[in-house]
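Figure 2 data, in text form.
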Amino acid sequence: MPPKPAANLGYTPPDGGWGWAVVLGSFISIGFSYAFPKSLTIYYKEIQEYFSVSYSQIAWVSSVMLASMYAGGPVSSILVNRYGSRPVVMVGGVLVSTGMVLASFGTSIIHLYLCVGVIGGFGLAFNLQPALTIIGTYFQVKRPMANGLAMTGSPVILFTLAPLNQFLFDSFGWRGSFLILGSIVLNCCVAGSLMRPVNKNALRKPKTEPPDCNGGVAEEGAAAEASAQSENLLTKAESKAESKGPSCMERFVDVSLFKHRGFLIYLVGNVFMFFGFFAPVVFLAPYAKHQGIDEYSAAFLLSIFALVDMFVRPATGLLGNTKWIRPRIQYFFSFAVSCNGVCHLLCPLASGYTGMVLYSVFFGVAFGMVCSLLFEVLMDLVGAHRFSTAVGLVTIIECVPVLLGPPISGAMVDVFGDYKYMYYACGVMMLVPGIFFFVMHYYNYKKVDEEQNKAAAVEMRTCEEAVRLKTSQEDKASHETKE
């Protein structure tokens, strides 16, 4: 893997202190970003009847919202690099609130696409990406645990919003509910206020003398240099581009990431995975209602899913931070993706409310593991110093499967009149990338080990030559002194 992120930041992350307040802010911000589109599915059946639209048409609401959230990643990344996380998250909260208030006056499904989908989605983009980025500036040793805790915000807020939305709908209708949700989401502005920038000057690394090329110190120096040379082998094109002077695009986007082997593996697998990632959650409550389960029980399935997810995410973060898993955390992520695929393939076998509850539990476990590791493994591959740009590039490309996944799944329901074929398709679209990740990360780890060993050998030879040269010069000086 590339060098430890802390080595490239120029300072030592505090791994605590105000960082835990930042984790709380990220918990709220990330929670609304991921839970909000899912919680709105409670209103789908009623909105579908109100506007007389099909399953695939109503699915576009969450789909456009999620796609806009991902498409806004690069814009959010540029703003974070320029202004920091705090103001960007606060602006995002205002945007989502504005979109929900305008949607409450909607007169057509297109109106909801624009207000909830586009405006609300871009607001969520300004909440998600800064919250993910700032954690990497405060944490290094405890980063998997911090990411796991922050990502727990999604199931916690979903667990709260799912029954709340049903209550709001029964009391105020979907229009009144959207107005109230517009005020609730302003809590993202409060979360943004907690994201104080890290004081890099106070944490600046002390300058040290270059190590001597002998004994244990030589081994440490060689290992560090080997790690640095390993990254250089992956980013030669970047160095050449810098020597020529960065283009306009390169000043904002690190295009050299497209030559980074680990980044490409992550990107290819995720693009395919996201076609089947969100649809099972979006259609969980409608599927239960289709089986004859009452509305409150169907909504409670989302709460069960969220409750399990809530405990799995921090547990996954703690497990990923152990000495056995952290060095090969990509395999853990591959396992989590594969588990999701198996759950969806087995879902049609679940019958009745008990079967749906069991599916929700196992799905919550698998989904929670993926979400807890989703951005941690990207940061592990590219380093915290390049994460902001990397997540922006990933989200803009992933917006295509995020946009098309739920509507394609909804179209399958319209064509076959049954949800089981949709769950079979989603299972395959999760299991295949899981296997792909296992194979390609095995190859990537092997190649990185070879590159590091080669770089270490080169460094040791350099040290030996330096020692011989120094010894020769000392002998020559000693001989001249005697004469």
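Caption note: The first helix runs from residue 6 to 9.
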